[in-house]
Sequence to fold (332 residues):
Amino acid sequence: LTLVAGESALAPTTKRFLLAAAPLAVTLGIDRLSAALVANDFSVVPGSKMYYCRVRRQEIWTASIVLFDFLGWGAPVPIVEGLPLGSRIVPTRAALTAWYQWMVTDVALFSPGRNCGLQRLIDYHNRFSRLCASLAVLSLATREVRQLRFTSHNLCPEAAFASIDDKRVGIYPGEMKVPINKVLRDQLRLWRAHCEALERRFKNLQDTATDELIGALSNILNGELCPLFFEIDPEVYQTVPLGSTALIKWWPSEYRFSGDLGRHFWECELRDAGVRSSRIDVLMRHITLGVEAHCSTNGDKLADIAEEITSRQERIFDLLSIKPVPGLVAKI
Fold:
């Protein structure tokens, strides 16, 4: 085939420039979120990105300098200082530390003695279960749900990734891989040790009312598929899977964050720590068509992404003095 010169060639248009500005900014090394804001083209980031992020004005100006210089437009107008753009409910580091310390204190207040009764054991277990679930919700940036999607199969201390399915995202119909940091893995080991000790304590009580509870604990410890974090109803002695509402109601009013607090926190903290927006999307389980991190067509290795995310999480936890909390068993 031959084309008549000038008749079929692509001509520069304003529309083509506007469509190309954000992808061009990304190829220049500008973070995807900054590129989207500079070019006013949000096709390069997930649709819900703006709900969780918090972008300071300096980031936008810095991105503008790079893009404008490449285009030969010169320097942008002087920056006008002001509030950041994005989420208004991002937990501060101080608030998160206080929230964690309150949970640890509340659990310790109900610490059971060696020969305590059944009710004391249940009260302690319920609080410890909420603490473990809260740390999992924070670490894995899960969504607010009626029942937490953590099971004995998809969240294990031996695994480097959890498999979470709390919303259908993009082309993925089910579970998506989420990296697990060391703090959470150690907390999961303490949770398992706690469940083993709780089963022994129930058996030693020799109370027929605990038979169903012993069976439920045995199922978890033997690898049966069941909800990982649960409370015990003290009226009927049955397990009740935890949900976001149960956690929120337990947290005191001054630290009553939203049930998806980890999504707001990590979207901002990891960005401030220098993690690229596209890598944060792996933790958030956000999908941008064409750059899915879970596909072989993406040149960014999932293992490298996980290493950066978890190492930054662990560093921030260390700064906030957030560490694993033992239950009935202090050693793992």
